[in-house]
Write a structure and sequence with these properties.
Elements: H1 8-35, H2 42-48, H3 67-80, H4 82-102, H5 105-117, E1 122-125, E2 142-146, E3 149-160, E4 167-173, E5 183-189, E6 195-200, E7 211-222, E8 226-227, H6 233-269, E9 271-272, E10 275-276, H7 281-310, H8 319-347, H9 357-368, H10 375-387
Length: about 400
């Protein structure tokens, strides 16, 4: 085995996820994009195959796999249905994994089995209308103690899975004067009175991945639903962000892999001037560039994902791993954008048509340069770690 090859077990897992993606997720992709359709049956199907709760211990109904295993499954899913892949990772990592890692045993026992079986859909409630890149410092959602409960009031915006979620791992200010600290994480059941989906957002790309603005009006949440420690939610956020960035990079890789495969097939079959366009040197140059970018994306993404999987998550959010995860998600997103730009060029006019698969992939690229911290924030993180205060 080479240093950057998958082990036989890892390759078997990726092949398993790729086969499920091709056979079950790919047929849903066009409908999800055109109609912003959500297939409610898909998470229970994935759970039956051991594809939910990937990093959750078996005692809570999970698969007990590593973060690296999660990443290679995500890459395979993204090849065939990137919108479903995004919703899956928001459920499985941003919500489920964080509850498993930081929740009390009571919270784990109450919620993890349903999240791992697909009975419950999870989301992460962090971003707000006035708090995007500065999600902690500008947070306005408030949680006020009321006996053994907290009353939560505020808005959350751009929430993946928001319209279909049963649970929200939600962050709210419990110490309003503590700046970017004084925040607490709660598990909030979306059926609780006062919790509402204000609007389902219509997006340019990743359209089948349901996204919403959420409104909370005096939502009563038991103190027992705190995840982590009271007023210490910033630690939960920061420890999870590096993992999130490492797990967004494989989405870019999967999309780029699919785009390259589509271009190779198209170049071989599209005939102009009496011969396949694959015989034209400029088309060959485009495809050669795409191949190099995809291969470097795969290597960098896998390397960083492997390192994150070995790091104690209490040590993330700073240091070398903080810079590396920002670099991986930034590089893979930027290269994915370049791959898809060339891919549409190879497809010509057919690639500009909305219903075309390559068009669907192209429209997805911009979110990858914005979500999980914009390109500009990623550069700030890298420079901050390299140059110091």
């Amino acid at each position: 085995m080479h240093a950057f090859s998958l082990t036989p077990d890892q390759q078997a897992l990726m092949d398993h996820a790729d086969r499920f993606g091709r056979e079950r997720l790919y047929p849903l992709a066009a409908k999800m994009d055109l109609e912003e359709y959500w297939p409610a049956e898909i998470f229970p199907e994935m759970a039956a195959l051991g594809m939910l709760g990937t990093t959750v211990p078996a005692v809570y109904g999970g698969a007990g796999m590593s973060l690296f295993d999660t990443g290679i499954m995500l890459q395979a899913f993204a090849r065939w249905n990137h919108a479903l892949a995004l919703s899956w990772i928001a459920h499985d990592n941003l919500c489920t994994h964080n509850i498993a890692r930081n929740g009390s045993d009571e919270v784990r026992q109450r919620y993890l089995p349903g999240l791992c079986s697909g009975e419950l859909v999870g989301c992460l409630g962090l971003t707000e209308p006035g708090a995007g890149s500065d999600a902690l410092g500008s947070m306005r959602t408030r949680a006020v103690a009321d006996g053994d409960d907290f009353l939560i009031t505020g808005n959350k915006l751009y929430i993946t899975n928001g319209p279909v979620a049963d649970l929200c791992l939600l962050y709210a200010k419990t110490q309003p004067d503590a700046g970017s600290k004084g925040i607490t994480a709660f598990v909030v059941e979306t059926a609780t009175p006062g919790f509402a989906v204000a609007q389902k957002l219509v997006k340019m790309g990743f359209r089948g991945s349901q996204t919403a603005e959420l409104v909370l009006d005096q939502v009563r949440v038991p103190r027992a639903n705190i995840v982590g420690e009271l007023h210490q939610g910033h630690r939960v956020v920061m420890s999870g962000l590096d993992v999130e960035r490492a797990l967004v990079a494989p989405i870019s890789v999967g999309i780029a892999e699919r785009a390259l495969a589509l271009c190779i097939d198209y170049a071989r079959t599209r005939v102009q001037f009496g011969k396949p366009i694959a015989s034209f040197q400029m088309v060959q140059a485009h495809i050669a560039d795409m191949y190099v970018w995809v291969e470097t994306m795969k290597t960098f993404s896998a390397r960083v994902l492997a390192e994150v999987a070995e790091v104690d998550e209490t040590q993330t959010g700073r240091g070398a791993i903080h810079a590396l995860t920002a670099a991986a998600v930034m590089y893979c997103a930027n290269m994915c954008n370049q791959v898809l730009d060339r891919a549409v060029q190879v497809h010509g006019g057919s690639g500009y048509i909305w219903e075309a698969e390559i068009n669907r992939l192209f429209r997805a690229t911009k979110l990858l340069e914005i979500g999980a911290g914009t390109t500009e924030v990623r550069k700030m993180i890298i420079a901050g770690e390299l140059l110091g205060p």
